[in-house]
Structure formats: structure tokens, C-alpha cells
Amino acid sequence: EHEDTGLLLQPLLEGQNYGAAAADGTQCPSVSVSRNNPAKRDCLVVAVLCFGNLINFIDWFIVPGILLDIQKYFGLSDGKTGLLQTVFTLCYMLAAPIFGYLGDRYNRKIILGAGIFFWSGVTLGSSFITESHYRIFVLSRGLVGIGSASYSTIAPTIIADLFEEGKRTTVLSIFYIFIPVGSGCGYMLAAGMAKSTGDWHWAFRVTPCMGGLALLLLILLVPHRIQRRTAAHRALSISGTIQRADEMPDVHRTAKTTWCQDVGSLAKNCSFVCSSLGLTAMAFVTGALGMWMPLFLYRAQVVQGIVPPCLQESCNSSNSLIFGGITIGTGILGIIAGAEAARRLRKINNKADPLICATSMFISALCLYIALMVAQTNILSTFIFIAFGELFLSVNWAVVTDILLYVVTPRRQSTAIALQILVSHLLGDAGSPYLIGVISNAIQAKNIPSLQWSFRSMQYSFIICAFVGVFGGGFFLLTSFYIEEDRKEAQR
């Protein structure tokens, strides 16, 4: 069923429209939803979307949380192990433009619900795969990626429609906090279930239950249609002028374009292109860290004699638990700090957003390089510098999305997000886990097999992430040269 994109502003049968509710500064009270109180309804919608985002990223990082167990269970090399996350990301990436196209034209609630149901079912099914069916396990991860793409592409556009620019950054920050929180919970849930049950398969049987709850909440609490916001909506909500759709210019009906025309227009948007390339570098680094860091820490501890090599049925999962906790803590702090820095610095510099992103990328790259260099001699210092590296990476999540939402016109936002997902994952975390594994394999093949070279091969292959982070900072600097002009163009 199509969403009503023909209307620019519905008659005020319920007192206020979404934009006015968000713009007037009304806070979100914790009371039951009412059709006559859009502010309460908007807050419940955001809460449901955040819960779905949490489950989305828990599913994403279950595999890295029990990587040692999976590698041992299927008898995999580093290259084949990295392929698991690469297949997931490739399917996620390729499905994103399709869902972006559908999200700009069809009912977004139905698409979100179908995505949750699909990825939850596949995750549950993958928990019953035996060691002789590794290819089926790889396929299941790809299918989960398709389901996840529907959510990540469409959910931010619903938030953009509910809130004006001033509040949108704050709400997006809350939404994106659940990326690191979900990622960290994925590590901790997987490691905890493997440890408590003695069988890593149980890690894949928890999130489907959470997905069922998210689907129920989506059906009950999210409106079937969420009105799309346009420049006309914003102008009216600011001025307080209310008109029926038939009294306003028929912008949507005269401005409909094909998907190819939308892509062509976005390709000319320098801020969108450069910030997407910066996000690609972020994705490359986070993808490699998310997949391999617990295993790298384990190998560093083996070389230092802190822990013994994994020979028993269930491997030591303490690094996954610690790394998961670091990911949650630094993610929350980083996203809040990024949003607050953006809010304050925008008042004195219109280029603040890309400059914040560039600075944080440069600092993150330096911290990750130091963490890799000290890993063989001081594991505590490694954890500290990894934490700082992840902290500064997390600063950018909400800020980058907000850049997209104000340099791209509203009716192209789902397509823009989908294209950004496609590019950032195609050149970023779709390949980085596999690339790190292949380089590690090549280094090991040229040296005598040993625990020392098992560690060094991962250490040397990881260094590429620090250099990619520097390139990402450079692309965000380029964004700062174009962002003012592109923002004015989108507002026009």
C-alpha cells in the first residue's frame, strides 16, 4: 500500500501535525499514546525504532563475539572466517538501494515489519546448522544482511519526518546510540550464551524472540502512514500557516523523478559524495575492528603468556565481553559528545559538522595505530587506546547522517541513505574483514607456523586501518568546502 505522498499537509483533524509538535519544544512524556497528542506518539515511534535498531546490531555482531568457537567448529582459516562478515555486508549493501527505492514510494511500516520478521527467522534457523554445512551458514548470514538493510535504510527517514532540524540531531543521536550499544550487546550476548550453555549455537536463539517483540510493538504503536516532510512543511510549521493540500502548490505531483534521475542529482552533490566517502573509511575501520579485534586481543594475550592457546571445546570469550563493554561505553559517550559538539559549534561555524568528523577520524587513526604497536608488550595500554579509537569513531555516526539529511532534499533521502549504505559498505566493511583475513593468511604462509606469527600476521594486516582512517578524515575536510552551498540548494 502506498504512503500518501500526494499531500503536502493534511488537514489538522488532530490539532497539530508532526512538524509542529516537534518544533514547539514539547518534551516526550511517559504516558499512553493519544491520537490528539502527536508529541507522545512521535516519542513512542522513536522508542520502537530504537529498539529495532538495537536488535539489528545485536544480530550483526553475534558472529564476531564467538569467532573463536565458529572458526574452530567449522575448521576455518582467517580468510574464510572473514568471509562470513563480508557476505553479510555484501548482501546488506546490495539490498539497500532496493529498499531505498521502495521506501521513497511505498508504505514504510510494512517494509520495516517484513524486514524484522525475515532476519529474525533466518537467525533462528542458522542456530541449527551443523559443521558439515558451512556454506549454508554463510548463506544464512547473507540473508540476515538483506533483512537488516530494510531497517537501516528506512528508519532514519521516519525520524527525519517526525522532527525539525533543531531536534532531529538529538533524536538521531539517540537512534544511533543503539549502533554501538547493539554491537557491544552482540559480543556480550554471544560470549555469555556460549559460556553459560557450552554451545555457541544458543547465541542465535535469543534475538529472534526480541525481534518478535519489536514486530509486535511496530504493529501496535507505529502509525500506518507517517506523513513525509518537505520544504513546504517546514516553512508552514515555522510560520504557523495551515492550509489544505488542495490549496497548496502540487510540489510532489510535479516533482516526481525516476530513480536514475535521483542518483544523477545526488552524484552532483559534492557534500553528499565527500561525506559518503568519509563514511566509507569509517565503515572500513569499524568493520575490520568489529570482526577481528577480540581475536587479535586473544592472540596478543597468548603471545604474552596471559592466556593459554584454545584447545578445549569452548574457547575463552573474555575478550569479547570486554570489547563489547568498551564498544557500548565509548559508543554512547562518542555519539552524545558528537551531537553536543555539533549543536554548540554550529552556532559559530557553519562548517562545524564536517570539521568535527575530520578531527575525530584523525585522532581515531592515531589511537588505533598506537594500540597495535603496544599490543605485544602491554595489553592494558592496548585496551585503553582501542577505547579511545572507538570513542572518536563513534563521534561521527549521528553527525554524518544529519549532514545527509540537510544537504539532500526530503523526497530523495531514502535513496540517498541507500546509496550511502551501498558505497560505504561496498568500499568499506564489505571487504575489510575478508581483506584483513587474506593478508593475515599470506603473512603466515611466508613464515614458519607459530603463535608469534599468528599474532604478528594480524597485527601487520591491521595497520592498513590506521591509514584508511586518515583518508577518511581528508574526505570530511573536503566536505567542509562544499557544505554551505549544498545546504542552501537543498533548502531551496
Automatic annotation (TrEMBL):
User: One GO MF term, please?
Assistant: transmembrane transporter activity
Keyword Membrane listed? The answer is yes
Where is it localised? Membrane
Quote the cellular component terms of the Gene Ontology held in the record: membrane
Where does the source fall among the domains of life?
Eukaryota
Mind telling me which residue stretches traverse the membrane in this protein? 43-63, 83-103, 110-130, 136-159, 171-190, 202-222, 277-300, 320-342, 354-374, 380-405, 417-440, 460-483
Membrane-related topology note:
Multi-pass membrane protein
Q: Does the keyword Secreted apply?
A: no
Cite the Major facilitator superfamily (MFS) profile domain residue spans from the record: 45-484
Keywords, A to Z? Membrane, Transmembrane, Transmembrane helix, Transport
Question: What's the family?
Answer: Belongs to the major facilitator superfamily. Spinster (TC 2.A.1.49) family.
Q: What is this protein called?
A: SPNS3 protein
